[in-house]
């Protein structure tokens, strides 16, 4: 009974419980318990908030937890130089950042200006990644056969016909490995990646036909393929997400009044169905929060069986249910809502200590 209770606590509360007695500390420190604890943590939507504090610019990384009893918008990390740092990927409680402001000296004496770093907010570990300055991240995942954490990369400057992809293993001393790619000039990729069933997924549009598709990367076979996607008139207003171990897509219509939520009912047969339609009360929203602006952002997630829809309009983050009811509203200046999720973990990773600039409890936390 105690094991089941402790496994459901959030990481901060669990760490405090370790001080109760030696037995609790012992049982909550073994790997099997930590894996079970990670599996019981909610996958919370991530957002970034740019702030100007005097002469310094910061980027706050926050999560939204509608079940929290204190603050539903919760602080995760803070990084300086907000305009140059970007959250590019998340996987199993790990966050991957790209920083274009840091000029580093390579072994051959040349300089390059992109730095990658990996962090675990729950354990407050942080480290920079080597040898990736000429690459752009496309996703991060755990390789099931080896349990390695890997990053899928593409080059900043590559062949104009084929967009080559590379794989980098966290903690490895080997350079990224070339695995080929897909024709780049034929597609545009929209939104963040979604990891589901051991594959990474992206929403893309073919230039010639303007048709909407999903590109899939099998992380075990290391191969690409395409899947069907719902019909999308404007790919910039469509976002892929994962919910209940199914692939989903939210689509904002052109008049900013309706959010259609599609779910893939059959992954193998690629069958989609319109599951929810959220109709926004635009007139009343304009009265409460001012005129609704263009370029809204939408994130769909689930919590304890409820489907929640987050919409960012200007400086407001609005929370709707699938019956189109406004549940809550939050005012946050400079907030950017993405599709990344954070499922916190206390599971130790050995690759951290092999990386340069490894630190615990660094300033960003």
Automatic annotation (TrEMBL):
A Pfam family assignment: F-box-like
SUPFAM superfamilies, per the entry: F-box domain
Gene3D superfamilies in UniProt: 1.20.1280.50
Limits of the F-box associated beta-propeller type domain: 86-276
Protein name, per record: F-box domain-containing protein
InterPro entries cross-referenced by the UniProt entry: A_thaliana_F-box, F-box-assoc_dom_typ3, F-box-assoc_interact_dom, F-box-like_dom_sf, F-box_dom
PANTHER family to which the protein is assigned, alphabetical: GENOME ASSEMBLY, CHROMOSOME: II (PTHR47993:SF200), OS09G0372900 PROTEIN-RELATED (PTHR47993)
F-box domain span: 3-29
């Amino acid at each position: 009974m105690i094991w089941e209770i402790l496994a459901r606590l959030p990481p901060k509360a669990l760490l405090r419980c370790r001080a109760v007695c030696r037995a609790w500390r012992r049982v909550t420190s073994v790997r099997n318990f930590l894996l079970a604890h990670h599996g019981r943590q909610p996958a919370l939507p991530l957002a970034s908030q740019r702030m100007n504090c005097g002469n310094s610019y910061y980027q706050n990384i926050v999560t939204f937890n509608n079940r929290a009893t204190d603050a539903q918008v919760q602080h995760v990390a803070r990084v300086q130089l907000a305009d140059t740092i970007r959250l590019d990927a998340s996987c199993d409680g790990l966050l991957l950042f790209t920083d274009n402001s840091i000029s580093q000296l390579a072994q051959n004496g040349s300089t390059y200006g992109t730095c990658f770093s990996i962090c675990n907010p729950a354990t407050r570990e942080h480290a920079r990644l080597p040898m990736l300055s000429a690459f752009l991240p496309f996703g991060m995942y755990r390789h099931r056969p080896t349990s390695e954490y890997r990053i899928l990369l593409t080059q900043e400057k590559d062949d104009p016909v084929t967009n080559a992809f590379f794989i980098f293993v966290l903690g490895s001393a080997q350079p990224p490995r070339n695995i080929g790619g897909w024709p780049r000039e034929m597609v545009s990729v929209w939104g963040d990646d979604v990891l589901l069933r051991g594959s990474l997924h992206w929403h893309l549009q073919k230039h010639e036909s303007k048709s909407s598709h999903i590109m899939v990367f099998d992380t075990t076979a290391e191969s690409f393929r395409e899947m069907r996607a719902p019909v999308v008139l404007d790919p910039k207003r469509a976002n892929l997400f994962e919910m209940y171990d199914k692939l989903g897509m939210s689509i904002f219509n052109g008049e900013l009044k309706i959010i259609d939520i599609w779910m893939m009912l059959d992954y193998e047969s690629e069958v989609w169905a319109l599951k929810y339609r959220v109709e926004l009360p635009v007139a009343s929203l304009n009265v409460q929060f001012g005129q609704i602006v263009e370029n809204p952002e939408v994130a769909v997630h689930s919590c304890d069986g409820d489907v929640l829809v987050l919409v960012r309009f200007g400086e407001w983050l609005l929370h709707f249910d699938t019956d189109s009811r406004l549940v809550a509203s939050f005012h946050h200046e400079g907030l950017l809502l993405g599709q990344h999720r954070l499922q916190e973990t206390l599971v130790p990773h050995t690759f951290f200590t092999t990386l340069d600039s490894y630190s615990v409890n660094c300033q960003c936390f």
